[in-house]
Design a protein that fits this description.
The chain is mainly β. It has one domain: Jelly Rolls (Sandwich), CATH 2.60.120. The protein is built from no helices and eleven strands. The strands form three sheets. Strands 1-2-11-5-8 form a five-stranded antiparallel beta sheet, with no helix packed on it. Strand 6 and strand 7 form a beta hairpin.
Amino acid sequence: MFQSCGEGAFYRADIDTPNGWEINKNLSFDLPQLNSNQSTFYIHLRNDNNYPFANIFLVASLRQNDSLLVRDTLEYAMANPDGSWKGTGFLTVKANKLWWREQQTPLMDGPLTIELAQANRANGQLKAAERLPGIVSVGISIETPEN
């Protein structure tokens, strides 16, 4: 897992998934103490040419202690209509910064955790598969308006 407070982000963390994202594995990000400013949450995905779909379905959850604050089912386009990958990068790996929640004001009563699960299913194709191929890394970032 890689964490930073880099360019434009109050917080950024990534988890490498070099052999694909395990189908039943939720990825968890424990957040540092956040300021009380409104923040925008982003999901970062890096994929390569082994990714078999034009889109991705995710379930994103925000927890505080044992309480579920937010759970969203999300769909993001990963490819253009012509079949080329969306995202940035000039080789085979493309990076996508995907908007999740805007003007989220974190509560300060305890630690926050973001949990991401992938919900892609191709009828009959991935039932026996253990991993979603082509997802190289998954991450989150939190950006505040003053950045």
